[in-house]
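Good morning,

Attaching, inline, the backbone tokens for the sequence recovery test we're adding to the shared suite. The designed sequence is right after.
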């Protein structure tokens, strides 16, 4: 956002205010990507290895940047004005000049004041981790709801950063209709962004109400929902496609999936479930993003089970699982049953394996979604989990309830069927309490049943 801007609210739309790209030739790589320096500050030298910037390097690449240099600073606590010490800031400015970069990316959330002060000294843009993640999400959003959610999160982030050294925004100037007497340009920007945030929030409320209607419709139907959750780039979409035969985008890049996708999955002897592919988590996920994606994350909250997918070939696989657990706790999903799925065993040459506890409940499955090894073990584990939710019933159907009978054969495991003299049908079947509640609500159901197992 520069000095050339419109003060009309209808035109005050920031599609991607933190997007990388579209910079001068001096700050771009030969392939047109923006040149960047990535920076991390750790509390002690034991944590100062170059590997601490590996994830930020991937994030920057996903946003379209070319990382030209890295810097790891050791300091017990950040400096209030510039986050890093004076010497490190000078060293950073030298790196920016030598590599002709146009953006410095920090692996931390830094304050607007720190961001402005560093920009003054290094003479280029400064982006923190939250801003970088928001930029990636803006590039990945495809649905209307996703775009609204990203724009809302971006504006909330940007509203705290309107002090970016824009001296022209501090001048007081009256206006016709838009500006009050003596209102500065900066105050006008804040007010316009506030109005845009309220507009987006209102539109999202309407979209959320539609999503809630669809969710309630699914809940009325006797179908359980299983959500894939995990760290970004763990292979969730590849696993989703392998299980359902869908063609959801699966790519070896961070946040390849943003908008949730749902497909039907038939489990042997356990009926039909809905499998949901969700956005990947990452450590230090911006709170504004979690708030803006509340309705999307609620799909996870309404799941019967969670498949926590982990890239077992990654050196930090244990750490990423803990980060995912933290996010699940933050959104209130920590009490939903979890089946751990350790993916990408083909990269470490491990054999597929399913682990059960002493009660016969599956706890984890090791597989490769890419090669298909272990998918059968996962299907069996899911069927076992679902069967634990089922009870055995004997029900009686009226002679004219053929359509209801057909639907029960689709949704339940039918163990036995007999016919009475009057044409009524008696079925022994295994079904969940959800399915039983649905059955009781059907108009052509006689209401005769007993639990036999």
């Amino acid at each position: 956002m520069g000095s050339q801007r419109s003060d009309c609210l209808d035109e005050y739309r920031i599609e991607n205010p933190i997007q990388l790209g579209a910079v001068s030739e001096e700050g771009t790589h030969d392939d047109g990507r923006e040149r960047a320096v990535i920076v991390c500050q750790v509390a002690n030298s034991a944590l100062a290895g170059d590997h601490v910037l590996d994830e930020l390097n991937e994030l920057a690449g996903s946003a379209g940047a070319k990382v030209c240099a890295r810097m790891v600073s050791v300091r017990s606590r950040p400096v209030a004005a510039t986050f890093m010490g004076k010497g490190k800031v000078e060293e950073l400015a030298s790196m920016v000049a030598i590599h002709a970069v146009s953006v410095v990316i920090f692996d931390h959330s830094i304050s607007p004041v720190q961001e402005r002060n560093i920009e003054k000294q290094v003479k280029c843009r400064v982006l923190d981790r939250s801003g970088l993640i928001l930029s990636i999400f803006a590039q990945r959003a495809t649905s209307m709801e996703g775009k609204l959610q990203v724009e809302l999160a971006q504006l909330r982030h940007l509203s705290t950063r309107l002090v970016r050294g824009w001296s022209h925004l501090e001048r007081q100037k009256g206006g016709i209709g838009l500006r009050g007497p003596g209102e500065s340009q900066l105050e006008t920007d804040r007010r316009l962004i506030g109005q845009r945030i309220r507009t987006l929030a209102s539109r999202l409320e309407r979209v959320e109400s539609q999503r809630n209607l669809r969710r309630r419709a699914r809940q009325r139907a006797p179908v359980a929902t299983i959500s894939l959750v995990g760290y970004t780039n763990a292979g969730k979409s590849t696993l989703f496609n392998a299980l359902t035969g869908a063609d959801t985008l699966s790519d070896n890049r961070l946040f390849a999936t943003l908008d949730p996708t749902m497909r039907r999955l038939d489990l042997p002897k356990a009926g039909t479930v809905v499998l949901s592919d969700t956005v990947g988590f990452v450590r230090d996920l911006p709170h504004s993003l979690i708030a803006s994606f509340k309705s999307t994350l609620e799909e996870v909250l309404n799941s019967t089970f969670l498949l926590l997918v982990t890239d077992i070939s990654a050196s930090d696989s244990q750490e990423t699982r803990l980060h995912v657990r933290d996010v699940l706790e933050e959104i209130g999903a920590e009490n939903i049953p979890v089946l751990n799925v350790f993916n990408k065993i083909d990269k470490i040459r491990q054999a597929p394996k399913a682990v059960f506890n002493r009660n016969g409940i599956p706890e984890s499955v090791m597989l490769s979604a890419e090669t298909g090894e272990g998918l059968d073990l996962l299907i069996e584990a899911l069927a076992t989990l679902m069967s634990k939710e089922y009870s055995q019933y004997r029900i009686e159907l009226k002679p004219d309830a053929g359509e209801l009978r057909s639907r029960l054969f689709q949704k339940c495991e039918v163990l036995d069927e007999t016919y009475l003299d009057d044409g009524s049908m008696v079925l022994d079947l295994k079904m969940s309490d959800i399915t039983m509640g649905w059955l009781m609500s059907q108009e052509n159901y006689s209401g005769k049943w007993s639990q036999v197992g």
